[in-house]
Amino acid sequence: MRLPEGGRIDRTKPLRFTVDGIEHTGCAGDTLASAMIANGLLTVAPSTYLGRPRGIFAAGVDEPNALVQLDDPMQLATTVELVDGLAATTLRGKGRLTDEPDAARYDKRNAHCDVLVVGGGPAGVAAALAAGRTGARTILADEQRELGGSLLTENRLLDWLADAVEELDALPETRVLTGTTAFGYYDQNFVACASKTRLWHVRAKHVVLATGAHERPLVFVDNDLPGIMLASAVRQYVNRYAALPGENIVVATTNDGAYGTAFDLAGRVSTIVDSRSEPPAELVNRARELGIEVLAGSTVRQALGTQRIGGVRVGDREIACDVLAVSGGWNPAVHLFSQSQGKTRYDERKAAFVPDKSVQAQHIVGAANAVYDLTGCLDEGFSAGIEAAKMTGFDGEKPAAPYTAREVITDPHPVWFVDGPEGRQFVDLQRDVTVADVRRATGAGMRSVEHVKRYTTIGTAHDQGKTSGFAAIGVIAQLLGAESPQGTTTYRPPYTPVSFALLAGRDRGELHDPVRKTPMHDWHVRNGAVFENVGQWKRPWYYPQPGEDMKAAVLRECRAARTDVAVMDASTLGKIDIQGPDAGEFLNRVYTNAFAKLKVGHCRYGLLCKADGMVFDDGVVMRVAEDRFLATTTTGNAAAVLDWFEEWAQTEWPDLEVWFTSVTEQWATIAVVGPQARVVLAIVAPDVDCSQDAFDFMTFKDAFLADGTPARIARVSFSGELAFEINVDGRAGARVWDAVMATGLPTPYGTETMHVLRAEKGYVIVGQDTDGTVTPQDLGMEWIVSPRKDFVGKRSYQRPDATRPDRKQLVGLLPTDPDELLPEGAQLIAPDTPLTPPVPMLGHVTSSYHSAALERTFALALVKGGRQLIGRTVLAPLRDRTIAATITEPIFYDPEGARRDG
Amino acid sequence: MLLIPCPWCGDRDETEFHYGGQAGVPYPERPAELTDEQWGEYLFVRDNPKGEFAERWSHSAGCRRWFNLVRNTATHEIVR
Ligand SMILES: [Zn+2]
Fold it and tell me: Taking residues A319-324, what's their average pLDDT?
């Protein structure tokens, strides 16, 4: 029912909304839950597992029952701001994701501040005022749409609050973020905050946590009936939203807090049931004056009713009611405090886990610090704000308190559960877990709440145990006969659910990850290339002509490279410029082969191992000058190799004078491959003598191309064919590529053809044919390991294990059926191996292709003791068939290397 | 997310850095003279204390310099 007066709603702005298809009217300022209550809708969808009737229970993020489906699934009616046209469906447990992409724009923002205050209740507002007035850069974040916290529930100090809000808005260095939940507290005061569409990454010099407290439920028989609500929630609905949940109310409490609810609803409250045998006389007297009966030393044993509460049983008495407002005490909201590594302790008098020791630069104040009187909250807030500001280099006076009345809060008397059917005493409403379930867990020998939580699922629903967590701790303590509760579960981010869309922000779709394109990319697009992703790079995979599938295109490209001339954009290869008088010595120490004596103008293929002796990367290194090299790396590993060079140079050999610069993007590289490569070079670089006598294999020349572009032309080959690499300034890449294509001679080819050509020659690709457990010996590459010098990983190379005969070794495979293509990754077994698990594996296929040159399929594989098995047959058992293949040497084409010179 | 003081660039977020493990584990001067056990110790065995730990970091997305710091592994406080 909507009260005719009061509340912070705007009765002049009606809002229409529907719940489960039925139309209702609320007001601006309502939450969905308050509007529902104002319309007499207290009951929501039945419980997830047991199908028991449930109603709105809380008024905030701790709500366990009132889940609704909007466009977003599983929203809490208690935290959804009412808007006109809102259409909600009550949810029984699970929601559903919409099929539509989320069209909203989410964004991230980094913010740095001196003082971050989390929580906009009286303590938080006081802290922000105190800090903000000093000029310290202050951020105040609160999950609610409006600052005030408990003041709004209790209708107190509203004039002071209005002034404070105005002042905070005016303070130049203070920012107030309402509707913004601090949900994650990480190291060095890094606090993640979420508003509806913005994710804040706040790094604060000092944090003041004023996160308040959560009221606890009471555990008794049928304590889940609709109409049973947290006492503070009832008070909030009435005072803040003018939404009355019932006309005949009983209050059940263990502490002073719920008396405020009773007093504010005087006339509609018949009885206060207080577990304490001697409640504070002042409160009892006030109750009597208001015509409310106080039953001291009593507890509610059972709720009566089937679809909604109709009364309560207290001792032998039955008392009729339509709402039972419960308060099982208060839990300081130590979620963020605990996330920040702060330690809590159990306070016997307050019957709660309270903050004990902060680890980070932080204060925790107010109800979050188990201070429940308003004077105390304000005082702690003002003090913390001024201290925080001082710690960050500002100064000022502690503000004068607007309210100094002394309020004595009397200790609570907790009740964990009652005698009676334990299968109807609910601990976790959302998970339908009862005292009986907890007893099963403790009966099975569990003692720790962490174990009981996982066994019973208590606290694992969307609300993450905000009402059920401590209830469970109390029940466990009583079941185990412990004197007091023992420990909490671990608080982990997020404090409240955060959508993936918000976390992703704008980093979705095309912006999910940077895309790297070569200078020739547009040409590839125009000419129909199909691309593949290599790391962040887009590389042409193959260039299908009309009517061609991938296989046909690749075979055509391969034939062109082997019989005519073909070109590839090799710009993505990692390139590292290495300079300094000790550059040669450095390379000697990291590559398995020697570089110190490489002549200027020459290139050498090099292999890198990590200290554990496993192959890490490979590539060609050019010596540009006595003190300058250009090393190439595999496309995907360029950053890792650079990092690794830096690591050794800086941390192990700081005496070496050598420096590294990534120049991958600065160069564009065009590989011209095939027996007719010289014809193309003669047109594009007429000044360069490319003849066999004038241009040796594994050398390079700096020259000008026909159009005057300076270029570095290297005679290197990753295909076994005659080949030149034209390297130019990245900005000239597209122009030079056009010039090469304008000769009308070469066929463009992509990475697939490159892979086929190199595999036919048995050249490995690090990361494809190796996996971090492969040594040079495994690859049959002992020839590239210098026996004379030391290098990183040499000691590992020399271990007996590196030459163990049953290591997985690189071999070739020729399927018995020359049209059968082995899938890469296929496991290999010996013939006659029974296929009952565990099946002993011999190895796996690392590369597999159709070969134009061989006119058949072939593969590379790592096989245990493979070199001893050459000539033998292995099987690749697949889901639908088994492929037989013969093990061969890992070289299939031109083993004598006759084609290198064209 | 840690806030890491790069000696060259100042305080930066952890995402800019690479972790380098325990500090003060030098590459052996003469690896060839080590037994397999000693070499294995160098390669794989590191301290794992609860508390202060001297470790290496590289400001890989910034100045690319390596440096050491002491971090409390229990509280993540960067001690020096
Ligand atoms: Zn730096």
Answer: 98
